[in-house]
What does this fold into?
Amino acid sequence: MKHLSPSILASDLLNLGNEIKKIEASGAQYVHIDIMDGCFVPNISFGMPIISAVRRTTELVLDVHAMIVEPQRYIDDFIKCGADIITFHIEAVNDTIAKEIIEKIKTNGKKVGISIKPKTPASAVLPYVEMIDMVLVMTVEPGFGGQKFMNETMPKITEIREYADKIGKKLDIEVDGGINDTTIAIAGKAGANIFVLGTGFFKSEAPVVAEEILAKAE
Ligand code: DX5
Ligand code: ZN
It folds into this structure.
């Protein structure tokens, strides 16, 4: 199943309620919420109050992308604030902690994702594929919206998709960074099925229609 996950990092935060309505009107079913701590990435975005505020205003799937060090310290808070999918970065944890986080999120009935930065190989995430719901392959260096899509990350998507198919795992693969009507087709062809759209959604002149843009992904 293909999904669009508009990222509120590119939205007008002063009018967040209306921006969420725009997402609903587009037919998208997810809201992508980028949590940045100024440490794992060189930028600070927002945290728990924003997740809670979005939760109060919509029933869309809250897709929380934690770009933070020591993500294990905040899993309970993400759950309490109403996150539906919680994605952490494999570069921020060791194997024991990764497994503890996966277990905690699953025990609470939420979905768990693991993200890899552009320079992190697919092999870093393959050992966890069987245990998780989603892999988020970053298609830009995490930290900022509006960057250029990195084509060179595509083989990793195909590698992860082929591995998931081989072990019979129904896995979501999300791409994040520089997705637009052209790059969505490239990422879809590589094997991705969830597409984050920040600039491409909120800065687009014509309102985005989820069904139309998703049709461009194979
Ligand atoms: C970048 C974030 C992205 C960002 C994408 O670190 O993880 O979710 O919002 O923005 P665009 O679509 O503008 O590249
Ligand atoms: Zn993101």
Notes: The chain has one domain: 3-215. The two ends are 11 Å apart (CA to CA).
